[in-house]
Amino acid sequence: MKKLALPLGAWLVFSAIAVTLFLVSGHIFYLFNFLYIGTMLAIGLYLYIRGYRHARRVTQLGVGLYMLVFLGFILGENMQLSGFFYYLFLGVFQAAVIHYAVAKIIGPFLFGRGWCGYACWTAMVLDFLPFKVPADHARRPGLGVLRYIVFAVTLLFVVAVFLFLPADLERILFITFIAGNVVYYAAGIYLAYRFRGNHAFCKYLCPVTVFLKPASYFALVRVRKSEEKCVNCKKCVAGCPMDVDMLDNSRKRKNATECILCGECIRSCPKNTLKV
Asked: What would the DSSP string read from start to end of 28-86?
């Protein structure tokens, strides 16, 4: 029963969100949406606890494809940052706004950047590339400014759209959604091969981290090590795709706000020192 606590807890959290939004809005979509995401997350966590190597990928593909294909391409909802700004400026409480509020603004105070590891449709594709463990854990601090540039450009683009009020705003936003994903995938693949790490895009370019990183510092769900068991072999550090110093339990540890809860450090530890 103890092993079911984490997946069941995650499912109950998302179920509570689903029921609350349904009761407040009256739209059954929100009930289905968050129950589905919570169920996929619970399945992935259960498989992870059972030792299934690709457990995280199950959730990542289940949620990522749902949001990219079903919500994005079929329902025409712009789930990218531009869509969030667009619907926010309209004052419309739609999927993109709710999604950002739950997963990327409020959620990180609870589960940090877990969204990046389990549900991001950009990382979902990049994780198929061959550089799961970075060849070089050294960071290029100057490149981090790129995320703020992309964030600012996206915001300015949406502001310009509202100022000039073109005839078909929804169509423009849908085209922006498609073009944005193409650019993200192309840039992500280039950066992965350039720096020999699948998550280079997440480290330097992703504009959503402007929301995620500050809140993730306070995350309740974190990977911690047992001081008594640790032999300082540093295998957890070597295996981390986001270059987090897992030997330090403090919130100020190196790249502390980068952890995506992927569990690679836990798998790498020969002494079973690390736990969520």
From this structure: HHHHHHHHHHHHHHHHHHHHHHTT-TTHHHHHHHHHHHIIIIIIIIIS----SHHHHHH
- Compute the radius of gyration of the chain from its Cα atoms: 19
What would the pLDDT profile of 87-128 be if each residue is shown by its tens digit? 888 877 767 788 888 888 888 998 889 889 999 999 999 999
Angle subtended at Cα 256 by Cα 252 and Cα 259, rounded to the nearest 5 degrees: 160
Q: What is the token pair recorded at 223?
A: 């990977």
176-199 per-position pLDDT tens digit: 899 999 999 999 999 999 999 999
Q: How far, in Å, are 62, 98, 121, 163, 254 from residue 101 at the CA level?
A: 20, 5, 17, 25, 27
Mean predicted confidence (pLDDT) in 218-246: 87
Grade residue 155 by pLDDT with cuts at 50, 70 and 90: very high
Nearby residues of 176 by Cβ (< 8 Å), 6 or more positions away: 78, 80, 82, 83, 157
CA nearest to 241, candidates 155, 115, 127:
127
| Whether the predicted pLDDT of 162 surpasses 90 | no
DSSP state of 227: T
